Amino acid sequence: MTEAAVHTEPQTLEVALKVWRYDSRTGERELVRYEVEAPDWVTLLDVLDIIKDRVDGTLAYRKSCRMMICGSCGMRMDGAAVLACRTRMKEIVEAGHVPVISAMGNLPIVKDLVVDMEPFWSKVRAMKPWLQSGYEEPPEHEWRASQEQMNVIHKEALCIMCGCCVSECNSMESDPEFLGPAALAKGMRFVGDPRERNQVERLNAYNEEHGIWDCTRCYFCNERCPKGVDPRDAIAKLGAESIKHGIDHDMGAKHAKWFVTSAKTTGWLRETELVPKTQGVVSAIKQTKFAMGLLRHGKVPLPFPPHVAEEVDEARALYNVVKQQGRDGALGHVQGERALARIDHPDDAGAHGGQGYRDSPDITPGEPPVQRDIGEDPHGQQTR
Ligand code: SF4
Ligand code: SF4
Ligand code: FES
Questions:
Q1: For 7, 224, 255, 279, which has the most beta carbons within 10 A of its beta carbon?
Q2: Global confidence as pTM
Q3: Residue extent(s) of CATH 3.10.20.30 domains in the chain
Q4: Domain 117-138+145-256 has what CATH class?
Q5: Domain 3-115, what fold?
Q6: pLDDT digit string, tens, across residues 73-92
Q7: Phi and psi angles of residue 260, each rounded to the nearest 5 degrees, phi first
């Protein structure tokens, strides 16, 4: 065998998949098993292409860029949303696993792995996803925003509109009207833009029913987002910005405010005051019977004298630091600093796909990514 042949003959894998087929005309569903031979560098999307080319041309799925940019190939693998073109199969096959592939959740299925994205886009449109600039003419022919100002929306700007977060959103499952993680992340992208003039108008709209406070904080959207957008963080930033601008009529906002007040004054969460402070006195009175039951079972601490933590000064000092630094809106969002660390240490996060790209949620700043010699990876040579 010549040296050239060593480099051109890829190793192969026997890949098995089970795919949930769906026919929307009849409503029939069927779990179909496929087995194909494929080069060892294949992604899930490559395997679907091979199945469609060689085994069953009727299999339906979406794709376009093949390189984690267009957001077309969202689907579920073993019940969790993935980008098919980002999902390498080698380790899965070598572990002897046969993954189950299905359409994304929370969106109507059109056929097999193709979902109707219209509910997704209608919510994005509702966010008015365009800049409403606060200037007539750019000063000095150019509007300059500092890096510090743009860092606030760095993660939100990475979104490729794939819908993986929406697929896994618990709140959307129980309330399909909920605006959802992708749309709200898009909203934060404009609320946080230093050139935007309608922050307050936007925040008022996002605080309505089915808005930011309907998020259950399950964090599945952060977990499944393939681009490191961390939509739950964006929603938290919208909440912080709303409170900063005095938009606090929703119970969720009142709840969050009371947490801060309680921690600052006593170092604890004063649960007995949580309901009246969040839901109002009338609602609290209606729940008296329930509260008495909890009291009888020793589940409610007596409100007087207020229990003050020994180290309460530390909680107060922390509160004062946040205030002094002016970090009481989106800037105070701690998890957002993961993104800033990525900006500060871009070399630590690699430069290309798979596990090692800069905006990958798998990258912890300071940890070197898995290095791959892309010169030997024939994936980039494919023509489809
Ligand atoms: S954290 Fe909120 S927006 Fe994200 S998946 Fe959970 S409920 Fe949905
Ligand atoms: S936030 Fe992430 S998962 Fe959601 S649509 Fe954007 S890129 Fe996809
Ligand atoms: S095909 Fe474009 S993101 Fe996968």
A1: 224
A2: 0.81
A3: 3-115
A4: mainly alpha
A5: Ubiquitin-like (UB roll) (3.10.20)
A6: 999 999 999 999 999 999 99
A7: -65, -50
